[in-house]
Design brief:
Low-confidence stretches: none
Number of strands: 10
Structural class: alpha+beta
Bound molecules: zinc ion
Strand content: 15-25%
Largest sheet: 4 strands, antiparallel
Mean pLDDT: 95
Helix content: 25-40%
Order of helices and strands: HEHHEEEEEEEHHHHHEE
Radius of gyration: 20 Å
Distance between the termini: 27 Å
């Protein structure tokens, strides 16, 4: 947490709330924790100087990275990691615990980065570097892209791989931004067990998997993301997401399947848990 849908919700909020605003001041909070979040900058001043006076022109997302393009040829990059969250508040709003960076705008309001475990990151890099740097596009599929790869290509990618399908869904080089929650929900929706080997899938299975992948993540964005567990992600206004109310299997061990009423089970998968319906998934 947060996974891809939460990052997308934050991106859409930033488009509404931050584009067109000019940065008045930047505070990196005292202490070494804040420095971990801006670790690509050796000094607070370097980070601040690149931002103060710049206007946010547009917001983009590449995978789990949020890119705030500035009018000074720089980009403010935010990766929420496992526990990070951005909020937009008035300047007088009380500072939440674990706030590391506060960006104030000339017409009021502040963008704040909160991250209890410092697993996320915020930094400034030149626009030229961002667009030439392949690491931002290190995955094959972004299921929330307007045009994710055609399903035939998805299918040939799956055919060319072996191993448990859950591992493939969690593979950041294949699909960006899926963790335990969405991988389990996508697998339920496609009727596949987590340990099915990807080279045993029929073309109908692959088609269903592809459709479930796109639809589940779009449903999650529509529900304004998931607020659950570590980090307690919220949207820019501090509101929780609602998708956890729609979970079909994740963390529902012993509860009835919403489709067939069988009890949902939890199984070990490597060092993590995975949830499934033993009747609906094979
Ligand atoms: Zn079921």
């Amino acid at each position: 947490m947060p996974e891809l849908p939460e990052t997308e919700v934050t991106k859409r909020d930033l488009e509404k709330e931050v584009v067109g605003r000019r940065i008045k001041d930047v505070e990196v909070r005292p202490g070494s924790n804040a420095m971990k979040v801006i670790k690509r900058h050796g000094r607070r001043k370097e980070f601040q100087d690149l931002l103060v006076g710049a206007r946010v022109d547009r917001v983009d997302r590449i995978g789990r990275n949020l890119l705030l393009e500035l009018d000074n040829e720089q980009v403010l990059v935010v990766n929420l990691g496992r526990t990070g969250c951005l909020t937009k508040t008035s300047a007088s709003g009380e500072l939440a615990a674990h706030t590391h960076v506060v960006i104030g705008f000339t017409i009021g309001g502040q963008l704040r980065m909160v991250d209890p475990k410092m697993s996320g990151e915020i930094y400034v890099a030149p626009k030229s570097e961002i667009h030439s740097d392949g690491k931002f596009r290190s995955f094959l599929i972004d299921p929330l892209d307007n045009q994710p790869i055609p399903w035939q290509e998805f299918s040939s990618q799956i055919e060319g791989r072996s191993g448990a399908i859950k591992a493939l869904l969690l593979d950041e080089a294949f699909i960006c931004g899926l963790g335990d929650i969405y991988s389990d929900e996508v697998l339920f929706s496609s009727g596949l067990r987590f340990d099915r080997s990807s080279d045993t899938l029929s073309s109908q299975d692959v088609r269903r998997l592809y459709r479930s992948l796109v639809e589940t993540l779009q449903d999650a964005v529509r529900a304004r993301g998931t607020t659950y567990g570590e980090g307690r992600w919220t949207d820019l206004q501090g509101n929780p997401g609602m998708f956890q109310l729609e979970f079909k299997v994740f963390e529902r061990e012993g509860e009835p399947c919403r489709r067939c009423r069988s009890a949902i089970v939890r199984e070990r998968y490597g060092n993590r848990s995975t949830y499934l319906c033993p009747q609906c998934q094979s």
